[in-house]
Design goal:
Helix content: 25-40%
Distance between the termini: 36 Å
Shape: globular
Strand content: 15-25%
Structural class: alpha+beta
Largest sheet: 8 strands, mixed
Number of helices: 17
Number of strands: 24
Length: 541
Amino acid sequence: MTSSRLRLLLSVLLLVMFTFVLTLHPISAQDEGVNLRWSIEGINDLASLDPAKASDSQGFTVIGLLYGGLVRLDGDLNVIPDLAESWTVSDDGLTYTFTLREGTLFSDGSPITAADVIWSLTHALDPNTGGWTGPFYLSNIVGANDVAEGTTTELAGAVAVDDRTVELSISQPSAYFLSQLTFGSAKVVSKAQAEADPTGWESSPVTSGPFQVQEWNHGQNIILVPNTNYWQAPTIATLTMPFIQDSETAYQLYITGELDIMGSQQNGIPAVHVPESETLPDFRSTPLFAVRYVGFNNMIPPFDNVNVRRAFALAIDKATLANDVLGGTVVPTDRILPLGIPGSELPITGLSFDPDAAKAALAEAGLTPETLGPVTLTYGVEGENERVVTVLQAMWQENLGVSVTLEPLELTTFSARLNETYETPETGIQAYYSVWGADYPDPQNFISQQLRTGVGNNNGHYSNAEFDALVDEADVLTGDVAQRMSLYNQAEQIAVDEVGWLPLFNPRLNILVRPEVEGIVFNGQGLIIPDYSALTVAPAM
């Protein structure tokens, strides 16, 4: 090759690289300021803007931007003040007294009072609201179950001492009660707006958090603007959040400069694109407090038999799934607690891949692949789910001789079917591929709140009396951390042995964020904005 041709080739390559960099790092600028574009993957729309009705991570992401609570999590996952400036706890650990910030206002300029807090908590528990998170996360408040069951409309354990003081009484001591109050079901809505427009307020709500709604274009996006009345008001002009069903589409939009943040806990960078993304300054990666798993309906055949569940667990080669199929972008696991969650440092003996043991377990159940009956695995269509379930299907066929039918559902339909399975297991899903990510970093959120007999998230109706006794004791321990972790560890071992869940792998948070975006912390909980006033876009270098 001549030197002139080489110089020409190098010039062309430099031009291409320069053009790529310009394409990769645009931040959308408007006359009135910066528009941050943050995609929401895995959905076509939001179900509601009522915090009590949100039911998936995508919905809770938006809810967390629109509403404040008494408390929230900081970048290190500690509980810190939000709408409440401080709180005290009684000596017996049963009464929490919160003082609201002086002069705190809703987005319409009306004051946020103790009455709004109590109305919001009661609304989240009200069976007429139709949400599940309130009865699930707020059940420890005195009188919560009575409200949830429809026997009263007054929440006995919530008292407005005065306009700025809220007193919450709980039924039993809890090391995680404050953490539960950081979740969506405890966010504060405007009592006045909700009572004035009971059916319409949730489409265009008055908000208590850092942002308010400018536009909600159903099936397309939601556009937020700062709530200047929030105590920590953002300074960016707008936050546009397009709804993108497929993470591959979101990735391509990011690469072509149409997005500034791409990826989330459930829908990160597609595994096939992680190697090329790792070289970009935009790439962010951290282990998530989450587990992907297969759940089984313990109330109907064949998974009402523990040996059948064990057979299906032993037939899965998790290392191949994680390292070969998903390219090492996830970490295979035999346990329920994700790495990094308190208690995960204690050992668990898992059900490791063993095809011979899988066949023996099926035989011990008194079944053969021919007599097992039809088996269907249901899953929500998002991210890498189709790739994963197809591999699971192949492994069960190869290692156990069992043919499994796959049932894909749109994500909101899948969530609804899980709820139906909890309510009427006899006609519910037989087996399902799902994910659980931490609402707060405590083992109770993965152990007790998922697999204790009768709890709202126990869609597969796993039940073991010894497990229940262990978690019931752990849930009320507030002083002896080591003993509390030990109790959860013993309970987790029982659930692993009996395949309450079939844990597969811990995902990583693999996302793309423009280097100019500042003020977002990435940790096992996902993306957290510790100080909304510090959410900025620095000038590109």
